[in-house]
Amino acid sequence: MVSGSKHAREIELASRGHATGRDGFVVESWQRCLTRHGLDPAAACEAVIVPQTRLKEHRQQSEELVHIARSGLERLYAQVAGQNYVLLLSDMKGVTVEFMGDPHFDHRLRRAGLYLGSEWLEERAGTCAIGACLATGEALTIHQDDHFDLTHTPLSCTAAPIYDGLGGLAAVLDISLLSSPTPKVSQNLALHLVTATARRIEMANLMASQRRNWVLRFSHSPEFLDVDPDAAIAVDADGRICGMTHRGARLLGASIGQAGGALPGLIGERLDRFFPIGMDGLPDLTRDRPAHERLLRLRDGSVVFAHAIEPPTRWKSARPP
């Protein structure tokens, strides 16, 4: 384990612009911890577990998302439990509202903060995967002494953001290890798994919240279009974007030269701003046609395969003329 003085010295030097082998997002987090949050890299802090009354409030506020995410969380945990990973689902305030881990390690996990009710905002815990993910909105790994606080340096934590259909960062999915191999590349598969699970949870959430509207799902591969699409958008009866997954936002944003696919500028826009089709073209993209024929070109010339899902007839007929 790295010594406290050496770790603190590296953080201070990196914050002053000295060359480092760390990922850029790690150094940026260290800088936030020092300048914005006033944390001391030489001071070891115990993990924060919120009281049961606060935890109950946080869990109630996240109840709908947790319900939708449940099968995806259980599937991910089944994939990684054999390697001693712990699964955490954090809300927007950095509080763990769902936890899956080996009960034999309960005491060690609780001490490390890898537990239900643990609080992982940067201002509380320093550089950590959940806190950095909340700050950047990006999937990332904070591995061992990437952590700001010395008490967390044995851990390896990998997190991915979960966005709601209107573009807000709704939750963070994290899988962590009490101990892991030293090379950070050992966590590349973990990063892939949490990112894929977060994408599927966003997809399930969009489908559940947009039952009254058309949903367009996209893939770069026709073979996976109908079973595991990459992105999706929802379109209302007037042909306007009313929801999307985060990758859906990026897809549309890129098509009009909007870096990052910022959602506030996309919600309410007409479908034909991004594609050379209107509402009357959506029936041609249903499963009535083979997936490889459902090719759709965006305004920037890029091409995706599309699957249009029509709202149930009873809701269509209920709309005013």
From TrEMBL:
**Superkingdom of origin organism:** Bacteria
Q: Where is the GAF domain?
A: 66-204
Q: Which InterPro entries does the entry link to?
A: GAF, GAF-like_dom_sf
Name the Gene3D superfamilies on file.
Answer: 3.30.450.40
Put simply, this protein is called ATPase AAA
